[in-house]
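Service request form, structural biology core

Requester: graduate student, group of Dr. S.
Request type: structure prediction, single chain
Budget code: on file
Notes: please return the result as structure tokens.

Sequence provided:
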Amino acid sequence: MGTMPEGSSTAGRGGPRTLAEALRTRGDEELAALLRARPDLLTPVPGDLTQLATRAGTRASVVRALERLDRFTLQAAEALAVAPDPAPYETLRSLLTGDEGDRGTSHAGTAMEDIEAALPHAVDVLRRQAIIWGGADRLRLVRTARELLAPSPTRPSPTGLGPTVAEATAGMSPTRLQEILASAGLPTTHDPVSAVAALVSLFTDRTRMAALLDTAPPEALTVLDRLVWGPPYGEVTASPTPPVRWLRDRGLLLPASPRTVVLPREAALHLRAGRAHRAVEPLPPEVRPAATTSITQGRPQVVDSTAAGQAFTALSTVEDLLKDWHEGGPAVLRSGGLSVRDLKRTAAALDTNEQMAGFWLELTYAAGLLASDGAADERYAPTPAYDDWLTLPAAERWARLAAAWLTATRTAGLIGGQDTKGRTLSALGPDLDRSAATEVRRRVLDLLATLPAGTAPDPESVLARLRWERPLRGSGTADPDANAARNAAAVGPTDLRSRIAAWTLREAEVLGITGRGALSAHGRALLGHDTAPADGTDTPDGTGLARQARAEELAADATAALAPLLPEPLDHVLLQADLTAVAPGPLQRPLAETLSVLADVESKGGATVYRFTPGSVRRALDAGRSASDLHTFLATHSRTPVPQPLSYLIDDVARRHGHLRIGAASAYVRCDDDAVLGEILADKRSQGLRLRRLAPTVLAAQADPATLLDGLRTMGYAPAAESAEGDVLITRAHARRTPPRTPPAPVPDGPPMPDATLLGAAVKAIRAGDLAATVERKPAPEPAKNGELPRTTSAETLATVQAAAMTGAAVWIGYVNADGAASQRVIAPVRVEGGFVTAYDHTADEVRTYPLHRITGVAELADDSA
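Core staff response, request fulfilled:
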């Protein structure tokens, strides 16, 4: 049997009567624990413990607190919601374990011993978070939580129980109550109150209730079986069937409306053997290994190498994406984001599907490598941070991407879905932030870290564990009147948190944090599971700078773990006779950039294949390279001899390159060989360019120079553009960059977690304010009237504060500040001079100076409170 929870000492009549009184019995550490668990109570800092208790009972705060309870703790709160108020600890335990005669068995596969062992901790959690209060003999659920979790005429309880007999019979005529008593075999009474008490006594007496049900028709028991686990309401006709009439006559079904009946709570609990829930889950579901984990079991190096390969592919994908948008990406939609057509083009360029293309776009955006340029024709483009990122070692580049993904709240999985107004959610657009994303990602990876190295989890067991830990998050809300957008979070077969978890498993794999479904060594280092900070800076109480330093330390650990697993960049390629070059691994950046201009990428994989074509060679010549430069480059970086066909290709294209010259007339073509110009005029393919001869060596066109260049190149010529001075124009790719941009800030999931310094200051301020509000004071010469501050004369005020300054005593004052706001304070005067009193203000926990003329009244504190 589990031990009694804290607070089990009998409070009796001397116990707290309100939540505020219960909070006053707590120590500073307990108050700090409450504020840490429910940080919304700190905004702003309550003036005293009464304000803190009031705020802890507001609907929004209680809903937020309930949403953060695990399934069993929530079930304990739900059981208290249908128990008498207040309820002893034993009553709560019996609602979760069932009747005494049922205690040696288990229901829904749960042993009673597990429930009894877990219940004290659940009660302690509810008490620490101020959801319940009172001693173990008088547990009280805060009123708002009871309203949210208890049944009502329009909403059944989460337990499936209906209203009590007293609630269901409210408004019933006394004659009808006496008829129910007679049908149930009970003696009639003289008033409705005693009649209800007699009926409740029958339903809660296991022996008499069993005897009554033994006389019920089998069909009536079938009706009860359908209602017992909820919903407890059923519709009846004007002429109910005999089984329903039998139940209604004996009060086992009571009218809820003219055509609706309800099974009263006491009767349902008897049919349930005293249990409030059909299935109680005191233990979290275990995260099981996947069925295919035998491939990597005991071989974490396989997982690490696989994950490293995925990490390298992720880097290549990000580089390819931003290289494709090097000169400026697609336009930004008026409503923000990327159009569906541009997303499809990006997916085709990356050789992936649209969902994964959206993930890569959101990843680069979250890492601060991509943003909109803010120009008149607003477009997406790489940021200056991208150029800095390219200069980093590969492992460090990956760590930055992984860290950005881990902390981002933008959720790429939502792309293509619809918001609450039916609008399609676009990549890089608004409304993709989900505050729960960061928590879910981190929790999923933490669960993976609990398995042995090299072990992949069963995804369904991970989802089941997450649903147990936060049953109300994503799958709706504890508040039935909350905004429909929050209730709509459960879309499709799973709730939002489950969908984020499924996306996390997939995204972690393509990003290289996991390999073959198992967490890699560099993934563990990124999460901090390999090392723990010696100074505790990884705790929520750490300052912002300490947390940032810790994050940088973890990124460095992940970089160190990944670096040995990534291939070293190569400085050579293998040229082949079929006009291709094979890169057997990653290339050094200068080599890769030059080769990407000189050749086209034909295929990627373990080795990248580049193909040389007349167009790619001409592209290199247009960029300012000469034929001799290209020959030297290939001879320097090829481990195989330069094939003769490739040398011929370069020389042939170079010989013809620039033979034709094109400039702006609106456009013209000039060539020293008038026969070539004659061929162009005679070619039918040139008709669209509308050429005419101006001179033996010059043709004029009505097309612009760029169109003329493309048209002649399509016809097989190799023209070169020239300037107004007749010089050849060298065309290099123009790098388009946005102004400096910061990465998008994650959307916080509620108020930020307070650090130890803020918690300590807040507790002191609340204590001081509570002292000022509750301290016993001696009567002032002129007692307060109609809620006004009491008043003393100037002489009396001066004499009292001077005496307090000499004796070191504390006094109570009424004070009106410069804005006219009145307040009451407890001060300890230190010095009185020049019309001012300098004192230590217990309310503000600091030394302050007060003008005497603003002190409306003063009184000494009672002797027992000084």
